[in-house]
Amino acid sequence: MRMRKKKYLDERLDAVKSYILDTDREERDFEKAVQIKEHFDLAELFGNENPVHLEIGCGKGQFVCEMAKRCPDINFIAVEKDRNVIVAAVEKIERAGLTNVRFISGCAEYLPRFIPSHSIERIYLNFSCPFPKEKYRKHRLTHSFFLKIYRELLKEDGDIHQKTDNMHFFEFSLQEFSSEHFRLENVSLDLHNSGFEGNIVTEYEKRFSDLGQPIYRLEAKPM
Question: What is d(CA 79, CA 66) in angstroms, rounded to the nearest whole number?
């Protein structure tokens, strides 16, 4: 079901537009769109040469907000395609007074048009939609289609951190990462009982962890 547009959404987005990168283009065909390169100058964008991390599917922004607080020497770009959701994330960053976060309102497949190749140190995939029906498997953010995009964006020593509560999606991700020649590290089948330190619990993560569901996590590096 499509989410109803929030009241005053346009006004709220306009009030925080300085945090949202301009990626609104008329060309909607993915294959044509990515042939055009309009790369942001990331150093100019943030005013420094700090490493850049990318979160794809940031939701309401709890993860990126906490990461930006803990890591002021890292710049973050958070991507979210739902305008009803991204507005809450941007407002959270503004209230926190954080200057090391910018947002892209759009879909992951268009990122190569705007993000320079081999410029991202780390990609976070937190509780991406698992698209459980087999006919929608190509929409999963760990499908080989997307992994090829991430490989292009990541620096040579970059990596991907994934978390999910969905076992079948996690198994699918393990297979896709392996088939696309990513080296898997720190794979956890029950993150909250693994002794892993430094985990930032997202809104979605807390909800399912409180129900006793295990959280799955992995790190993947291109080989």
Answer: 16
Pairing type for strands 216-222 and 182-188 reads antiparallel
Q: What is the number of alpha carbons within 13 Å of residue 81 lying toward its C-beta? A: 12
Query: How far is the C-alpha of 119 from the C-alpha of 207, rounded, in Å?
Result: 34
Specify whether the CB–CB gap between 89 and 60 falls below 8 A: yes
What are the tokens at 102?
């910018």
Residue 162 included in any domain = yes
Q: Three-class SS of residue 153?
A: helix
Domain count, the chain: 1
Q: What is the mean pLDDT of each run of 10 residues along the chain (223 residues)?
A: 69 95 76 84 97 97 97 98 95 97 95 96 97 95 97 97 97 98 97 92 87 94 96
Query: Is 19 part of any domain?
Result: no
**For residue 85, how far is the Cα from the chain centroid?**
14
SS3 84: helix
Has residue 20 been placed in a domain?
A: no
* Domain annotation covers residue 12: no
CATH number at residue 90: 3.40.50.150
Q: What angle do CA 67, 71, 73 make, to 5 degrees?
A: 140
Instruction: Determine the structural domain holding residue 59 and report its residue range.
Output: 38-222
pTM: 0.94
